[in-house]
Amino acid sequence: MEKITPVTADFSVLPQIGPEDMPYVVAAGFRSIISNRPDGEEPGQPDAAILARRALEHGLAFEHLPVANPDIAPADARAMRAALDRLPKPVLAFCRTGARSTAMHAAAMALGDDKATTYDVVIVGGGSAGIACAASLLKRRADLSIAVIEPADAHYYQPGWTMVGAGVFDPQVTRRTMAEVMPRKAHWIRQAANTFQPGSNSVTLDDGTAITYRTLVVAPGLKLDWEAIPGLAETLGRNGVTSNYRYDLAPYTHELVRKLARGRALFTQPPMPIKCAGAPQKAMYLSCHDWEKRGLLDGIGVEFHSAGPALFGVADYVPAVTAYIERYGIDFRPGSKLVGVDGDARIARFEQGDGDVIERPFDILHAVPPQVAPDFVRSSPIADDSGFVAVDPATLRHPTWPNLFALGDVIAASNAKTAAAARKQAPVVAVNVLAALDGKAPAAAYDGYGSCPLTVERGRIVLAEFGYGGKLLPSFPSWLLDGRKPTRLAWFLKDRMLPPIYWHGMLKGREWLAGPQPIGQGR
């Protein structure tokens, strides 16, 4: 590798690097690479796409901002400044000799303090909803100035964790770096939002910086409140206590299921609202099917403790899941809420509907915590009495501030909190945000669509698709796929189709089967 020349404490340059140089870049302490060299400038030069893949394999963020000469255009300077602001530091940039990278840095720094920028759109949250919305906006209007406020450096395909817990997916396939999924034209602000000032069109970050906007989109998801159940947080990942609601714990679920030959397995579901209300049951059914196939199920007592009164909130799908409750011999206990865990003693405590608290010993406890709005949302003026963001359920616009929208798990609407819901919401918010920027009324409506692929056994799924009021909203004709029955086709969709649709469709602004409906023309 060529000699590295420091420019500032956080920025250095060097001539062209190759894929084989990535270990040395990491060893030198860099966290990001910027390529300022156009592809094909000379024979034998490695393409930026090859370098990007190798960089990501080594945990390095990568940005390709090619320029042809050291005379830097204003647009290139702005792109460089945005990259320098959002990329993990320190940053290593390269071109043929390092001269253009040095010039790009100088031009970017000459722009002044970017914190004073007022963005067309500020999006709080870089999860499924936030990234999909940013991508949908940029597909419609590529010259928008968009900032995404997100402190995390990793992005997860959370619907895949059920499959990880069953040993179907490797956990790594559900994780990518945030830099990899962030739309290239969006400005990634790598901080957490702290407070909202909708009256002055600003969001304050943890470091006290105020970010101003013309329109605001709130999509930070929800908070898994592990601490709300005494003893649970301390024993997660040991003593047989697990949860598919965490990336690091889903593999432990699979480990526990494979090791258990006899004993008691408890599965819990907290009060609503929760993300993917079917997920607690999915873990249970897949575990039972594994034990059934290995001839162990008769020796394992399985209990499902749900704080709610019914197996599923949409009656049309209850017969199918009830059949599997009976098939696996599951002891379904409605109105039973997990309120305490003694991991060392392997005892779980449940509050019953009459207020009594019972204790149940366990060998496996698959626990799902209560779920609430993030603290900074719950204490803000944009929240309603539930703590979630108040929105019109159709337009997803705030009832008080017409330039504020929200989507995903954080909204105070009656739809299911699923990735499928966010996939449908993102185009609606994109259309309505653009209308607000143009001084027009909202033009698109969300019908409450959500999807819950209930994995009742390995190889078959009950594909629940519904909207507001429990109205069935199937994506396919019943002759092809009847979502009220367990089918292999629905499993194929979950196993093979939905992950690429998520990574290469939803997060890229491709709205396959998710195009926004004009107001008054919903299904």
UniProtKB/TrEMBL annotation:
Top-level taxon in the UniProt lineage: Bacteria
Annotated Gene3D superfamilies: FAD/NAD(P)-binding domain, Protein tyrosine phosphatase superfamily
Domain (Beta-lactamase hydrolase-like protein phosphatase-like): residue spans on this chain: 7-110
SUPFAM superfamilies recorded: FAD/NAD(P)-binding domain (SSF51905)
Single GO MF descriptor: sulfide:quinone oxidoreductase activity
Domain FAD/NAD(P)-binding residue range list: 119-239
GO BP terms, alphabetized: sulfide oxidation, using sulfide:quinone oxidoreductase
Name of the protein in question: Sulfide:quinone oxidoreductase
